[in-house]
Amino acid sequence: MTVNTAVVRTIDADTAWAAVLRRDRSFDGRFVTGVLTTGIYCRPSCAARHPARSNVRFFDDGATAREHGLRACRRCLPDDAGRDEVALAKALEILRAEEPPALESLAASVGYAPHHFHRLFKRATGVTPAAFARAERARRAASALESEARVTDAIYEAGYSAPSRFYEDSKARLGMTPSAWKNGGAGASIRWSVVSTSLGPMLVAATQKGICRLSFDEDEAALRQRFPRAQLLPADDAMQAWIEGAVQAVENPSRMPDLPLDVAGTAFQEAIWQELRRIPVGETRTYADIATSVGKPGAVRAAGSANGANNVAVLIPCHRVIRSDGSLGGYAYGLERKARLLQREGNESVAQKPLL
Question: What CA–CA distance (Å, rounded) separates 106 from 91?
Answer without folding.
Answer: 7
